[in-house]
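One thing: could you explain this record?
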Amino acid sequence: MEELDPAAHFGLFLNRNFLDAESCARLLVEVNSSPTTQAPVYIEGSEGTIHEKVRKTTSLHPSDETISAMWNRLFQQKPLLEDHFGQDLTDCERPQFLRYKEGDFFVRHQDGNTKQLDFDHLRVRRISIVVFLNKDFSGGALKFHDGPTTFDLLGQAGLLVAFRADMFHEVSPVIRGERFTMITWFR
């Protein structure tokens, strides 16, 4: 019987060395001392953007210089992403940084869906990007769904994973430690 290659089945783009260990360490130092807010989630027809039964995580706000440098680095992936996904992409959103503490999670969802008409920024998202900044945590898998088939991607520091924004995915609860990621979306 042929083995299923989960990355191929889900059409994932993986760059295992997007950031080196030193870059991840520098980012972790900065984001750990950055201002924080509760991470929002956009639900059509609901008031407010904080819904802790859907998403529980913290947004970290490093310097504009760091965000700009990471945006430039992410944007350099554009030709590779266009080739992999067979799509012409225009730009990418400002990167966001997230910390998932023990018990934090994000339920099954899509990052982009043309039916989410209330939120223009969600409607135009085509490719989602997650960059793992650390690996010293348990749980917190990036879980992909395709009907009855699922795939738990366990992050490694420096790994960039890209996937179609309309793909159903979730972040399973962190069991131990803290999970740090940088995220963005190409349009």
